[in-house]
Amino acid sequence: MRFTLIDRITDLVPGERIVATKCLSLAEEYLQDHFPLFPVMPGVLMLEAMTQTSAWLIRASEDFMHSVVILHEARNVKYADFVEPGEVLTVTSELVKQEGRLTTFKVKGTVAGNPAVSAKLVLDRYNLGGDEKSSSDRHAIVNSRELFDLLYPEASRV
């Protein structure tokens, strides 16, 4: 099972920054256990939403060159507030630096303009087949492009 923890990309400047949203619904299965009487988005899923948002910036900036974009390191993660059902987590990720395969981002998540989470993330990217893309790489890239078109329909209008 794969979780897509952002619902929409609302702004994108390739090579610079991206803004995405996650609309938290009481229907999300994990909220049944986290926590039944006080449902809130788990901190690890807030971090994953920030990672996914940053990964979309890499993919869009490099024209989907790599099939795998993963979290390498999370630094200075700070949780400031809960995200409850009915609220929208807005994630803003800004590219700080790129060194080889690693890219560093300054990322924050807000709810109604108020801080909820922040971190410095380092993401790695590569292809399973190395310099020669494998059939698995090509398949993953096609799937990523299709999901990107759903999350950011404005891209097809540009």
From TrEMBL:
Pfam family, one: FabA
Membrane-spanning ranges: none
Class of this enzyme: lyase
Annotated CDD domains: FabZ
EC number, UniProt record: 4.2.1.59
Keywords in alphabetical order: Lyase
Keyword presence, Transferase: no
UniProt superkingdom: Bacteria
SUPFAM superfamilies documented for this protein: Thioesterase/thiol ester dehydrase-isomerase (SSF54637)
A GO molecular-function annotation: (3R)-hydroxyacyl-[acyl-carrier-protein] dehydratase activity
Lyase keyword on record: yes
Name by which UniProt lists this protein: 3-hydroxyacyl-[acyl-carrier-protein] dehydratase FabZ
Gene source species: Blastopirellula retiformator
